[in-house]
């Protein structure tokens, strides 16, 4: 039901955008020539990391996450790549759990505001996503025969992949500065690859809880556009 709701909302938004921009033929020559590359920095993930550092005395953990994006336009179509790094530690008592890794996402978007004179984008798209990561847990135990001690379990070179449906908006503030957001529904993820592990991962960078088969996500981007040679298009 989640995936159907996401699709319906995206289609309604796209239909509204079509109605606002009109259906007159687009006669711009060279319209599939890229106008530039937009490079984005996710403010939500970095902001959460900064806030987390400020309240570590309460959360008893460490959290670092950065996410970047880049897209290039071909008229109403965009090719997107996204990259993120993740490093988090959860602490409980004298034990802890550490998860660190990276994720990469690639896929197309279709822009339903391609006739907007400012070059704004209301888009709907798809991503193929994968993550490489490692994790470990250290915990203390007590035994009436062997006494107290600590145990450590770790996983190296874990991999996961999934698909994402995306929708969002990108708006130009100045000639090169943009703001935008991407809402995403993540699906097609399976924990089967972890079934033979002594430690089942708690978190997958870029996806979320490893115990879930689907998840929602939201990124809010600060974007800089690097324009190509002037071509008569925005």
Can you describe what's shown?
The chain has 234 residues and is α+β, with helices and mostly antiparallel strands. The chain has helices spanning 2-21, 43-54, 56-59, and strands spanning 36-42, 61-74, 77-92, 95-111, 121-143, 147-172, 177-187, 203-204, 208-209, 215-227. 15% of the residues lie in helices and 56% in strands. It has one domain. It has three helices and ten strands, in the order H-E-H-H-E-E-E-E-E-E-E-E-E. It is elongated and about 75 Å long. It has an eight-stranded antiparallel barrel with strand order 1-2-3-4-5-6-7-10. The longest helix is centred in the N-terminal third of the chain and has 20 residues, at 2-21.
Primary descriptors:
234 residues; alpha+beta; 8-stranded antiparallel beta barrel; two-stranded antiparallel sheet; 3 helices; 10 strands; 56% strand; elongated
Task: Describe this structure in a few short sentences.
The chain has 234 residues and is an alpha+beta fold.
In which range does the helix fraction lie?
A: 10-25%
User: What does the radius of gyration come to?
Assistant: 22 Å
What's the structural domain tally? 1
Element pattern in H and E: HEHHEEEEEEEEE
* Main beta sheet: 8 strands, antiparallel, barrel
Amino-to-carboxy terminus distance: 39 Å
Counted by DSSP, the helix tally is 3
* Proportion of beta-strand residues: over 45%
Chart the SSEs and their pairings.
Blueprint: H1 2-21, E1 36-42, H2 43-54, H3 56-59, E2 61-74, E3 77-92, E4 95-111, E5 121-143, E6 147-172, E7 177-187, E8 203-204, E9 208-209, E10 215-227
Antiparallel strand pairs: 1-2, 1-10, 2-3, 3-4, 4-5, 5-6, 6-7, 7-10, 8-9
